[in-house]
Description:
The structure holds two protein chains of two kinds. By secondary structure, chain A is of the alpha/beta class. Chain A has helices at residues 3-6, 20-32, 43-53, 69-78, 96-105, 117-129, 131-139; strands at 12-16, 36-40, 57-61, 87-91, 109-112. Helices cover 50% and strands 17% of the residues of chain A. In chain A, α3 (43-53) runs parallel beside α4 (69-78). In chain B, the strands form five sheets. Chain B has a five-stranded antiparallel beta sheet with strand order 2-1-5-4-3, with helices on both faces. In chain B, strands 7-6-10-9-8 form a five-stranded antiparallel beta sheet. Chain B is 49% helix and 21% strand. The relative contact order of chain B is 0.04. Chain B contains 16 helices and 22 strands.
Amino acid sequence: MSAVAETPRRPLVLVVDDFADNREMYCEYLSFCGYDVIEARNGAEALEEARSRMPDIIIMDLSLPVMDGWEATRRLKADQRTNAIPVVALTGHAMQGHSKGAIEAGCDSFVAKPCLPDQLVAEIRKMLSTPRVKAAKAEG
Amino acid sequence: MRAVSPAQARKPAPPIEGEAGARARLSLAEFLLGTDEARECAQGTVDWLAQAGARRAICALIDGETGKVKDVLARGVPDSQLRGLTIALEDPQDPLVFALAGPEPVPLSAKRRRPAIFGRDDLLALPLPVSEKREARLGLLLVSLAGGELEAQARWAAELLGQKLSRLRSQTALLEGEHRLARERELLLSIINASPDPILLTDTEGRMIISNARADALFSAKDGESEGRHRAVALNNMLFSATLSQQAIDESGAARRELLLVSPSEGSDLLFELLSSVVQHPREGTCVVSILRNVTDLRAATEQIEENYRKLKLAEADVRAERDRLDLIIDSVADPILVTDPSGKILLMNSPAERLFTAPDDPAGNDDAQRAVRSNDAHFSSFVTNLFLTPGAGMRWRAEILLTDPAELQPLPVEAIAGKVLSEHGEVTAVVTILHDRTEALEKARLYEQLKAASAQLEERVREATAELVRRNELLQRQHLALEQGSQLKSQFLANMSHEFRTPLNAILGYTSMLLGGVSGAVTPPQKVKLERIDSNGKHLLSIINDILDISRIEAGKMPLHLEEFELPTLIGELLAEVEPLLQKAKLRTVTEIDELPPLLSDRQKVKQIVLNLLTNAIKFTPQGLVRVRATTDADECNALISVQDTGIGIAEQDHEEVFEDFRQADNSVTREYGGAGLGLSICRRLATMLGGRIELQSKLGQGSTFTLVIPRRGKRR
């Protein structure tokens, strides 16, 4: 991936987490790693941000107040404008049901907490490099 | 009787004295001698008297048997008058009867009134014969005496005629006797001939004097007849004589014998019964009368009868045996049985009944027993009477009677069941009654009542107990529910808690990692060491949280099995690579001994988790030496064995079980020294169980440990 290609615009990552320390930690590290970052504290905010800012990828904690991550993901995937944005689920619930539910809701991948910042970045890079995402992005 | 001189003249001469008179008498005597007929004699006599001068001469002949006048012959009497002559023999006053009765001639005076037949002269009535008894009078001669010496002539003629009539009468009687005899003899012969049995009269020598036709058929043969018949007759005669003579020797009186003869006509055997008796005959001397009775058929009949009789005897014996058996049965029935007539009189009873209805033999007389028997009798009689009086009693009648046992004087309640015995005509001939002792039944009924009461009590208790049980059961169910809910809550709690732990831990580890990564600028070596301490403790905390999560997953049944085929050596290679940093750090050698094995079918992730845990334990508790990993199968090749052997501190025998419990290490001090929550082996054991296997431990304190995972080579989904 050449620097030239990235010059016009840095990838925009939406980090959704109600726990401020984690959210800000990821945001700080993602910025440090060269991403544009926007934040949301719950599902409703996440929907709003996603529709207004159209991020390249969404990091979605599942246990959220107001609207939880599953519901938010379902709505993103049901919306034609946002259904192409990859969603990476992030949860502390390591139980089987959680990851399964996340996939059913439409999440594209799944990362269990604790997830070190560099691990998250590795996951984001992997997701963004897949051709499907680019194609969806080109159409968007 | 006066002697009669022989008469020369055939015709009666007139009565003349002297020689002429003698000649006249002679003529009458000759006439009478030559005449054999009473009427002619009488007629000749009256004629002779008329010739002698009698104006009337009448002779009435009397039938000796009837005593009535049979013939009247007369001379000088008109025929019309002859019929009028009657002698009323039953009238003794009648002069004729008087004359017949008297011994002397009776004059019948003409002066007296008399029938016309007598004429006008005096008559002399002369009985015939003159001197015989009155009963033997055969006639009466009536002569008119007109004319001289006629009375003497009449007396003489009457004498002569009377004698002649007497002689004639006796001659007639003799002839008749002979005739009768001959007739009787014929009759007798026809009688004996008519007898179906041969009858014989023999003399002492056995010669036949008289024989009937049947006897002739057996014992005589004529010249013209067949040779066989002659022989048979000869044989029969011989047999008969032999039997008779034998009998004469044996017995003197009448005797019965059996005599076997031959039928001369058919040649078959004939069996006779010979009945012979000796008779004394005045002329023939001693004779033997024999009657033979053909018993050939009789013998067969007798045999038949005997056979029947024998059968009858047998049948009777059978009947008797049957009756004996019946008696025995009736007697052996413990219940009293009575047979009574319709009036209630006891006809028959078995011995148990006798005990109740018969007074004891004891002559001293037990008054109480006697009373009991009388009372029993009265009760029983009234029962039988009721049978007839109660309408609708039908053929059977059942009642309870309270009797008394005469022997023990105890009340004896009995159930009496009576049945009527009917004759062919439907009349009641007898009543059979069975008495059944109710004492026991009543006692049983009482006990049954008690039992029922006890049973009801018991039932009540069981009901109470059941209710209590139900109550407790409900309680238990509630408790169980509460427990389950508690367990559910626990799992939920643990799940939540692990999430709640992870969120801050995420921040701790994340920021530590960022600081160590130089996101906020370079860190000094002492800072780096401290950050690394934070990092390692955070990771340790995370592993504990993960362990707790695993246990709660397993307990909540939320740990699914993912069976797949995999190569064990590959898996072990991965594990060794994973723990390589630890091994290097601990300066331990590793030895692997992997057998050639076909792929395993099991949950790869869980097998890996278990063996990894065993390896990290081995490294953790081995200060120096080596760790040996072995993979093989057991003897029957059903299970795969993966063992991890170390040369570490070892585990005391008594702690072998404890190390598998939650939050346990062999020694709590170990936890402090070696770290770890003590959940690893507990999880390993649970996982091994999930895989259908187990973990075995061989170890001694100070001599190292060998943990072996034993799992089926082909696992099954549960």
